[in-house]
């Protein structure tokens, strides 16, 4: 079955960067894409960006453009997101999800806490 | 950016009853609309895509309807496991693909 397993929780200081991984299994990684969605405590889901796993082309929400990067390692079937210049407002659970348009299957989430 | 607005914010319904949740888009999204269910401490789960197509393994009591700017998720006979937060998401115009603020479905 399709499964996405994300890396563990991270604690970062303001101004630092964080990189979260998302390992896919149960399907052909390059046949789809990977979305990144975050959820701050008690808040709605927020779509951040998407990568075409076949060719590496990525689309980003303008809100994060410039400090957010999605990459992938196709032989390992892993997608990565990296967010830089962290502030306390970036404290959230970060989810990856498979899909080309809608989010079909989700990872378990990775909590990123930004605190001095 | 397309703004998605869900109503009501909280819906109280008794088990066995029907629940109707609404989602409105600030401009047309055709039928490019998905619904997700999220339980506390869990990742969201895809319920409906294409406004009305149930995802694999989703019970028939969940149904979606609508097109353009007005959409509805109906749960025909609520089970205890259905009490959760429900989000709609448009995937017609990007970036970004935007979510609604969610409807909390609680036991009456």
Could you describe the 3D structure shown?
The complex is a heterodimer of chains A (116) and B (108). Chain A contains no helices and eleven strands. Chain A has 116 residues and is mostly beta strands. The mean pLDDT of chain A is 96. Chain B has no helices and ten strands. Chain B has strands at residues 4-7, 10-13, 19-25, 33-38, 45-49, 53-54, 62-67, 70-75, 85-90, 103-107. In chain B, the strands form two sheets. Chain B has a six-stranded mixed beta sheet, with no helix packed on it. A four-stranded antiparallel beta sheet of chain B has the order 1-3-8-7, with no helix packed on it. In chain B, a hairpin with a 3-residue loop joins strand 5 and strand 6 (53-54). Chain A binds chain B through residues 35, 37, 44-50, 59-63, 95, 101-109, and chain B through 32, 34, 36, 38, 43-46, 49, 55, 87, 89, 91, 94-102.
Beta-strand content estimate of chain B: over 45%
- The average pLDDT value of chain A, as a whole number, equals 96
Q: Please count the helical segments of chain B.
A: 0
State Rg of chain A: 13 Å
How far apart lie the N and C ends of chain B? 36 Å
Shape estimate of chain A: globular
Ends apart, CA distance between termini of chain A: 40 Å
* Oligomeric composition of the shown chains: heterodimer
Radius of gyration of chain B: 13 Å
Please, what is the average pLDDT of chain B?
96
Measured by DSSP, the beta-strand proportion of chain A falls in: over 45%
Biggest sheet features of chain B: 6 strands, mixed
User: Which structural class do the helices and strands of chain A define?
Assistant: mainly beta
Please provide a brief summary of the model.
The complex is a heterodimer of chains A (116) and B (108). With 116 residues, chain A is an all-beta fold.
């Amino acid at each position: 079955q399709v499964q996405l397993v994300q890396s563990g929780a991270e604690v970062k200081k303001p101004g630092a960067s964080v990189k979260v991984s998302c390992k896919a299994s149960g399907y052909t990684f390059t046949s789809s894409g990977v979305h990144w969605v975050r959820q701050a405590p008690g808040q709605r889901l927020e779509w951040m960006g998407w990568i075409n796993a076949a060719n590496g082309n990525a689309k980003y929400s303008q809100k994060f453009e410039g400090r957010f990067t999605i990459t992938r390692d196709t032989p390992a079937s892993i997608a990565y997101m990296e967010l830089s210049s962290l502030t306390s407002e970036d404290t959230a659970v970060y989810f990856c999800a498979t899909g080309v348009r809608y989010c079909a299957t989700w990872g378990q989430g990775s909590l990123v806490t930004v605190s001095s | 950016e397309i703004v998605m607005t869900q109503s009501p914010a909280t819906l109280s319904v008794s088990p066995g009853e029907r629940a109707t949740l609404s989602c409105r888009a600030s401009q047309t999204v055709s039928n490019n609309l998905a619904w997700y269910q999220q339980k506390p401490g869990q990742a969201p789960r895809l319920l409906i895509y294409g406004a009305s197509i149930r995802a694999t393994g989703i019970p028939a009591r969940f149904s979606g309807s609508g097109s353009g700017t007005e959409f509805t998720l109906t749960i025909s006979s609520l089970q205890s496991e259905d009490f959760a937060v429900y989000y709609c998401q448009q995937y017609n115009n990007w970036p970004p693909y935007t979510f609604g603020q969610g409807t909390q479905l609680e036991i009456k």
